[in-house]
Amino acid sequence: DQQVKQNSPSLSVQEGRISILNCDYTNSMFDYFLWYKKYPAEGPTFLISISSIKDKNEDGRFTVFLNKSAKHLSLHIVPSQPGDSAVYFCAANPRTGRRALTFGSGTRLQVQP
Amino acid sequence: DAGITQSPRHKVTETGTPVTLRCHQTENHRYMYWYRQDPGHGLRLIHYSYGVKDTDKGEVSDGYSVSRSKTEDFLLTLESATSSQTSVYFCAISESSTPEAFFGQGTRLTVV
Description:
The complex is a heterodimer of chains A (about 110) and B (about 110). In chain A, about 0% of the residues lie in helices and about 55% in strands. Chain A is an all-beta fold and about 110 residues long. In chain A, strands 2, 4, 5, 9, 10 and 11 form a six-stranded mixed beta sheet that branches. A five-stranded antiparallel beta sheet of chain A has the order 1-3-8-7-6, with no helix packed on it. In chain A, a hairpin with a 7-residue loop joins strand 9 and strand 10 (about 100-105). Chain B has one domain: Immunoglobulin-like, CATH 2.60.40. Helix content of chain B is about 0%, strand content about 60%. Chain B contains no helices and eleven strands. In chain B, strands 2, 4, 5, 6, 9, 10 and 11 form a seven-stranded mixed beta sheet that branches. In chain B, strands 1-3-8-7 form a four-stranded antiparallel beta sheet, with no helix packed on it. Chain B starts with a strand and ends with a strand. Classes of the chains: A mainly beta (about 110), B mainly beta (about 110).
């Protein structure tokens, strides 16, 4: 039973346009959400996060939106650059219990020059 | 980059043999984790540690054991490797104060 779901395995966008990556979760005990970026043959790197007390967090070209009622979050990348081409993982951390991130299955983003 | 070193980086082993993967950190972080990454599954938690000698199971712990005798080292052992354990293994660390985890470079394990 996947508690964090990324339903789009891949996404292709043109350079300069917006990339929107989506993530849904089922566990209402999650209270902190993160996005990681992963290049081939490297470990995932932390990109941006959001606490459940907020609905938006922005860091440069990256913005994460959280809709708690829908149990949905999204990552917006504007403008998209070819170097953004990677696999993006959504992750969630629970308020109580096991202190470990639960990850989605990832979305491969390809930014076309 | 967080000071995390995984060894070995690549390993090929035969079915039924024991394998130990090592994660070493220089950040003095309390929490350490082992994840595996497989196509279509993302990263799945195998075991984690919340202190020296304190460990707990993750969602895919069958066939794996761990040990943490020092803050800086977290070992993952496959007692008897199987082909289903062919995967890329990532170690991660985090501090007590924030949920962000920092990952090592990964170990690609092939069981033939």
